[in-house]
Every structure is written in C-alpha cells, then in structure tokens.
Amino acid sequence: MSLPIAFTKTERPATPNPWVLPDRTLTVFYGCPEIPWLSHYFLRLLFAKKQILYLDGANQISPLLLARFARERGLDPSSVNSLIRVARAFTCFQLTELVRRVPKTLEKFPADVLIVTALPDLYFDEDVRDREARASFEHALEGLRNVAPRSLSIAVFSDATSFKTKRRDFFQRLRNQAEHVVKVESTPDNKLSFTREKNTPLLPA
C-alpha cells in the first residue's frame, strides 16, 4: 500500500510535516481505516539511528516490510532490527500492561520514539464488560502520563472513530490528554490529507 500525501490548511498553526514528533509530547493520529498501517511511515526513523519501541495492538507491523526498507537503503536488516523492539497485544488488558511496563522497558532499551496502535480500539471489545474495559483504559492513560515527562516522542494510531460503540468517550479522553491531534483522511484522488486539530506548545522542561 502506498498513498500520496497532501496537506490541508487549518485555522490552527500546523507544522509542515505531521511526521515530525516533538519530544515529551503525545500525538494522536486518527481518521481513516489505514491509520494503523500508517505507523510504518515512522520506521524511517530507524535509518536515522533512532530507537523505536512499538506496542502493536492492531497487529500491523511487518518484519518483511522493515527488511525491505533496509535492503532498499543497502543495509543489512539485522542492523535495523537492533533499533526496534516490538510487543504485540491481542486484548485491551495486554495493551494496558505493555503501556504500564514502558518505564522498565526503557531502562533496558532507551527508545527515542514510542508507537502504540489500536488505542483505544482494543477497549471496544464487547466481550469485555464495560466496567473492566474502562478501568483498564484508565490505567493505560495513566501509563502514558507516566511516560510523557521523559525525552520521548509518543505517537498513537487509532481507528476509534470507525467503531459503533458506547465507549466512544474513550477516544475523547485520549484526545484531551494528547498535546497534538492529527486527523488523516483519504481524498477522492486517493491521497491522504492531514489536518492538525490540536497543537499544544511544549512548555520548557
């Protein structure tokens, strides 16, 4: 899959490139079904020697694609693999636990970027009782808050708005916590447009 990128103007100031993540901030990307897959665009950071911790709730990351990216740049895939750690989650409880473990993970693997997919999408599972899903989601938000003060860029990719669920307020709570919110939409000419809906200036550390 390869979609061209187009930028839309917004009333709020927008950075020229939505893929540039400031340190110590949480950026949420949402808006189209391709959102989880779009997290692959950040894998280019590996070629700038950036380390990525990838919590994959959407089961999207592709080792074959990563290897192809490396070979296209004349690199041995194994040299890139050492710069990324991937942990998959298949339930909301697993994703919450992965988020809460991030501080300990960073002690052994000092990542520059944290990517999380399917948050809060996994928490919409109707097989999970509402009370339990809400409690788990709150713990996940708390985990992200605990990580935020570190010199780490956090990107969450969510397809939450495509779900018909009574738990849609989960996504609003995530938006409220994020410093930056970017809406991604497919245009009629098969391009992607990016609208920065929230852009909170970073306060001095």
How do the helices and strands line up, and which of them pair or pack?
Elements: E1 5-7, E2 25-30, H1 35-38, E3 52-56, H2 63-72, H3 77-81, E4 84-88, H4 92-100, H5 102-108, E5 113-117, H6 130-147, E6 153-158, H7 169-177, E7 180-186, E8 192-199
Parallel strand pairs: 1-8, 2-6, 2-7, 3-4, 3-5, 5-6
Antiparallel strand pairs: 7-8
Helix pairs in contact: 4-6
Please give a structural write-up:
- The chain is an alpha/beta fold and 205 residues long.
- The chain has one domain: P-loop containing nucleotide triphosphate hydrolases (Rossmann fold, 3-Layer(aba) Sandwich), CATH 3.40.50.
- It contains seven helices and eight strands.
- It has an eight-stranded mixed beta sheet.
- Helix 6 links the parallel strand 5 and strand 6.
- Helix 4 (92-100) packs parallel to helix 6 (130-147).
- It is globular and about 50 Å long.
- Mean pLDDT is 87; it is low at 1-16.
For CATH, the homologous superfamily is named as: P-loop containing nucleotide triphosphate hydrolases
| Largest sheet: number of strands, sense, barrel closure | 8 strands, mixed
- Secondary-structure-derived class: alpha/beta
Query: How helical, in percent, are the residues?
Result: 25-40%
Number of domains: 1
Q: Look at the structure and give the mean pLDDT.
A: 87
Low-confidence sequence ranges? 1-16
Entry summary:
It is built from 7 helices and 8 strands.
State the main characteristics:
single chain; about 200 residues; alpha/beta; Rossmann fold; 7 helices
